[in-house]
Amino acid sequence: MVLNEATTHIVKPGVLGLRSQALTEHVSMRALQLTGLSVANSHFERFAGEPAIVVERYDRYRYEGVLYRVHQEDLCQATSTLPRYKYNVTAKQVVDTLRAGGADEVEVGKFVQAVLANWLIGAPDAHAKNYSVLLTPEWVQLAPLYDVATGFGQEEERHKMAMEIGGASTIHEVASRHLEAFASDLGLDPSAVLISADVFAQLIPAAFAQAISELDLPSADRSHLEQINAEITQHCERVRNKLAAA
Q1: Structural domain containing residue 137
Q2: Cβ atoms of 142 and 133 closer than 8 Å
Q3: pLDDT tens-digit map of 83-116
Q4: Would 34 be classed as within a structural domain?
Q5: Do 197 and 120 touch, CB atoms closer than 8 A?
Q6: Residue 8 within a domain
Q7: Is residue 92 part of a domain?
Q8: pLDDT tens digit string along 59-71?
């Protein structure tokens, strides 16, 4: 037996108290992957009847048959923030940390797109521990997204965002002026951020529907996911209407 051998996958049961959470997380991640974002590969599985999401580790590489780890830090670690303050880390702190660590503007852009996508899919837990960077002596890269799960489709509304966007703290509050303030605060072109928001608002509902269609599911689960996508679609349509009216 090899001690401390690197693992290849993470198995996560659903969060108690949230309906179909493991399934919803897989579909959310797959949907964002289908929009073109870098997202960890995952699949939905049942183990002795218990639902779980199985996530392929992205911080690994294989060389000559041996599996090696790639060093990563979540953005609490990278910003020297205690985990209990994970909801206090701002997008500006993250971007400042990326730039100070030597990441290029492509990586900054990936992070901004991730923040926008989490907002549009209604994911309430996109806090600093749910973003990471991959580190080598040569480069700093934003890690593929993980732990992305929409908050739509639950009994209690979960619309507060983990990171504010231009001063807006809930998903329905964000308007053009917040996106412009968000971009300016990060030293980015506001028009480019507005365009990205509009593009993702177009892409995400269809991507979520495609992610559902890839699964062989009982009718109750499929119906619940379709209900969730109806809420996501409504949210994205409202966003696009607000952006067009600005």
Answers
A1: 70-245
A2: yes
A3: 999 999 999 999 999 999 999 999 999 999 999 9
A4: no
A5: yes
A6: no
A7: yes
A8: 998 888 889 899 9
Count how many domains the chain has.
Answer: 1
Q: What is the pLDDT of residue 65?
A: 86
Q: What is the pLDDT of residue 137?
A: 86
Question: With a threshold of 0.90, does the pTM exceed it?
Answer: yes
**Which member of 125, 185, 198, 216 is catalytic?**
125
**Residue 173: C-alpha distances to residues 120, 148, 168, 203, 239 (Å):** 12, 20, 6, 21, 10
Q: Minimal CA–CA distance to 56: which of 29, 36, 83?
A: 29
| Amino acid at the residue 131 | Y
Residue 183 vs residue 67, higher pLDDT: 183
The torsion angles phi and psi of 43, rounded to 5 degrees, stand at: -150, 160
The CATH number of whichever domain residue 165 belongs to comes to: 1.10.1070.20
Q: What is the pLDDT of residue 2?
A: 53
Tell me whether residue 87 is in a domain: yes
Q: Which class for 32: exposed (0-12), middle (13-18), buried (19 or more C-beta within 10 A)?
A: buried
Catalytic residue flag (residue 147): no
3-state class (DSSP) for residue 231: helix
Cα distance between residue 88 and residue 139, in whole Å? 27
